[in-house]
Task: structure prediction
Amino acid sequence: MSAPKASAISLPGDPPGGRRAAAVWGIGVAVYFVAVIFRTSLGVAGLDAADRFDINASALSTFSILQLLVYAGMQIPVGLMVDRLGTKKVLTFGIVLFTVGQLGFALSPSYETALASRALLGCGDAMTFISVLRLGSRWFPARRVPLIGQVAALFGVAGNLVSTLVIARMLHGVGWTATFAGSSAAGLVVLILVWLFLKDHPEGHEPPPAHHAGSGFVRKQIAESWREPGTRFGMWVHFTTQFPAMMFLLLWGMPFLIEAQGLSRETAGGLLTLVVLSNMVVGLVYGQVIARHHTARVPLALGTVGATALLWAAVVAYPGDRAPMWLLVSLCVVLGSCGPGSMIGFDFARPANPPRRQGTASGIVNIGGFTASMVTLLAVGLLLDATGGNYRIAFSSVFVLEALGVAQILRLRKRTVRRERERLVASRVEAVHVPV
Result:
């Protein structure tokens, strides 16, 4: 008899899932949806922000860099908080922070106060996705978690779509203050939902009690999570796959398409929307494939990186001043695979760590892509200022980080696969000895 696939194994004590799980998890996803709207709203307001605060490209990139710096820096602390305090408390705190940050950004009279508001928003945003991943693993069977994670990311992409379609139109309809202040009301809605209806886990599936010994607990959680090859491998997968689309959507895509490619604001917005729509489709495909065939994870991740590098190079190196529309469309379609590709990183860290370390391990993985995005946002801004707005040179910085990430993925691949096989054998032995 052939061995069962890893994705098909139901572990002892698995949550049952069902409608109740979907409803509770849906509340967490709604929080993430709102957080992504707030996070990406600057991506369609970059030129407006430059005019409003009278700043250059480097200063404009500082908005997103600071937001991502706070986000990345908070990932391990947030993971520890989720492991220790539970999802509901962390999500509640995060909602308060990102709502205040969005409102403060709307009312900021100066560049400095606007920066502080984006930092506050980044801090709250950092508390959402890890919490949603933890919520999914607590409410759904393990075999469904890869798909659940991709669907959660899909709703985040939908939040990006709202920014691209709705926030952009509101900015030019009702103005800066009304747009950002009005959108902050969504934070109050999800805060009420979380407070009234969200639960950390279904009844009868409480996690085993953990011993929290102050700083000793923190060091142990981080050290044990990092020691697992799957955690480090997942971080580098996330690092290498996510940042090209993040940089493009979060800040530099709209200026590049308008200033370097000569497109109208409406056409540029349509291409950004295409990235988001492609992300949604690819996310569903990746989730289904990985849920059925865990061996597809590495090929999908490396394929995503290769396709992105190929199309990015074609656009950057295209002869003449402007790339043809068909090539820009192709780039945007491929960039849509970056988000789903980055989610594969969590599918390596999750089976490598026990439930008590899921939040910490997810935080380590999530640092990867956001660190790469932050570095690229800064590099592009500095290179644009240094070269007088040469996007060919500025956008070439993407290849440096992709090469670094691929080298680390190849280095850790065999060790990670070997460790997973060892854990799979151990889980089968445990399942055989579970009393019935």
In short: The chain has one domain: 17-201+216-423.
